[in-house]
Amino acid sequence: MIETEITAALADPELIPLSAFLRRFSVSKSSFYRMASRGEAPDVLKIGRATYVPLASARAWLQSRVVPAATLSQSARGAA
Known about the structure:
By secondary structure, the chain is α+β, with helices and mostly antiparallel strands. The chain contains five helices and three strands. The chain has helices at residues 2-11, 18-24, 29-37, 55-64, 69-79, and strands at residues 15-17, 45-47, 50-54. Strands 1-3-2 form a three-stranded antiparallel β-sheet. The model has no long low-confidence stretch (mean pLDDT 84).
């Protein structure tokens, strides 16, 4: 039964394995779990031993991390 659920989850494009998420966004596993402990990581779905990130959760996480370019240039001027 669990193998069927995992196979279905892998076939569903709305879920990506955690390892693929980590590679795609250049995040280490330890960094991911540190972010999760602070409530800053995307939601995950556990099916058996496998961990998946819903695509909508990954998109929302990415959007929450976007910083306007003007903010970067202001902080660079303040540090100089």
